[in-house]
Design a protein that fits this description.
Length: 450
């Protein structure tokens, strides 16, 4: 199947609710940057796509970092002096500071308070906190609950294990006709948080599941990795292959009700940057384009100066701009099937542009060829605006001089890429266009110098 036929079959509402259902399935799992929660998540993803689960041993040096010890947790609670569980990890995994070392003892409130985290400004929400690289233990709770604690002796228990093991991540390559790759990356290291981590996981998984049914030009590499340390490990262990990556996108926070945000790659003018800008401009919805900055998600690593990969980041509301970020309010109600489906379709449109963006040559470049006698209007079909379709053909004929890609033409004409691409397809079948030789390099060098 080709990508055009596929796009006609997918509806926003159906794919959006499929993604929301998958997120609901993954929501209860306690993930961290290592451990069985990540493996359990990857195994569930494997019911949709045949991804490889890779394991990197603790202590492995990856550039300036070391793979940390593996953390696993069975149970945790706080009991009051009457034996009532006032905090129960089994009810909400955000209650435990991620990477907490084991503890089991009785403790006074004054000492316990040094290990409690809450958000005074959001008194009903439980914060999400971590302590990956300095050993500590702690509990997170609503500020209202913290304020209600009385002076008594509490029993604290964290039944966790922090010892040498592995860092796990998922990798899936869909081969295309070219070994040039498109990287699609998301983080998988947060516990019960929906927009931040699960929305990106669902979008990556469903996109991979969709693309694997297609005949593709590029190869697509999906990485489902713990944030920061996962991308650093992958880049370090695959340094020789990194140059295959010609385009890439990090997916995070793609399910909230906010408008779509695209954050450009460090290069700022790469083809993927231009594609997302083009798609959003023609989306008919509000959107925001942000310049690159060295904070955010794994684009920080992919865009570090030695790699400088053309990798942007697709979000709805950026992490520092929604109050629910890293709290229990980033839950199943906070993300919407509509937004998830809309983010999916925007990614699929971007893939469609990547797959079909070509450089052509006009085979009849001396003045305009006579379009009417070639039956081109008849081939347009019933629902097409014939005037607009003619303009698109004139643009393609005029600009196809073996130096301009279809994306260049779409940008210059102000027309939608899909209309330009449809016109090129018609002109090609009428024998008025031919594919330009070395077009892949042409597209890239042109994009790089623009
Ligand atoms: Zn986060």
């Amino acid at each position: 199947m080709n990508i055009h036929d596929l796009r006609k079959q997918i509806t926003r509402d159906r794919i959006g609710s499929e993604m929301h259902d998958f997120i609901s399935e993954l929501y209860p799992i306690c993930r961290s940057i290592t451990g069985n929660g990540v493996r359990a998540t990857l195994r569930r993803i494997r019911t949709h796509i045949p991804l490889e689960i890779r394991e990197v041993p603790s202590g492995t040096k990856v550039f300036d970092w070391l793979i940390p010890n593996e953390w696993n947790i069975r149970d945790a609670y706080i009991k009051d002096s009457r034996g009532n569980k006032i905090i129960d990890f089994g009810r909400c995994n955000l209650h435990v500071l991620s990477y907490s070392t084991p503890v089991k003892r009785k403790i006074k409130l004054s000492e316990l308070r040094k290990h409690l985290f809450s958000i005074p400004e959001k008194p009903d929400w439980i914060p999400y906190r971590t302590s990956y690289y300095s050993e500590n233990w702690g509990f997170c709770m609503s500020h209202r609950q913290l304020e209600s604690l009385t002076q008594e002796e509490y029993e604290v228990c964290i039944d966790s294990v922090l010892e040498p093991g592995y860092l796990s991540y998922g990798e899936y390559l869909i081969p295309g006709s070219s070994t040039d790759e498109v990287l699609i990356s998301c983080h998988i290291c947060h516990p019960s948080l929906c927009n931040d981590n699960l929305s990106g996981i669902a979008l990556s998984t469903m996109l991979a599941k969709t693309l694997k049914a297609l005949t593709l030009r590029y190869s697509y590499r999906f990485l489902l990795i713990p944030g920061t340390i996962g991308s650093i490990a992958w880049l370090c262990l695959n340094e020789k292959q990194v140059s295959k990556i010609k385009h890439g996108i990090v997916l995070a926070n793609v399910g909230d009700e906010g408008i779509t945000t695209y954050k450009k790659s460090r290069r700022g003018n790469s083809e993927v940057d231009r594609i997302f800008e083009h798609i959003l401009r023609h989306s008919g919805t509000d959107y925001r384009i942000e310049d690159f900055s060295p904070y955010g998600y794994d684009e920080r690593q992919y865009c570090s100066p030695a790699f400088d990969l053309p990798v942007g980041c697709l979000m709805r509301t950026p992490h520092d701009q929604f109050g629910e970020y890293h709290t229990s309010a980033d839950n199943l109600d906070f993300i919407k099937p509509w937004s998830l489906g809309d983010s999916f379709l925007k990614c699929l449109s971007a893939v469609s542009v990547l797959e079909t963006n070509q450089v052509y040559s006009n085979r009849s470049p001396k003045c305009e060829p006579q379009l009417g006698r070639r039956g081109l209007y008849r081939d347009l079909g019933g629902n097409v605006d014939k005037k607009a379709a003619e303009f698109a053909m004139l643009w393609v004929l005029n600009q196809s001089d073996a130096t301009h890609s279809l994306l260049d033409i779409a940008e210059r004409s102000g027309m939608h890429f899909d209309d330009i691409e449809r016109a090129a397809h018609l002109l090609l079948s009428a024998g008025l266009l031919e594919e330009s030789t070395d077009q892949v390099q042409e597209v890239q060098s042109h994009a790089g110098t623009k």
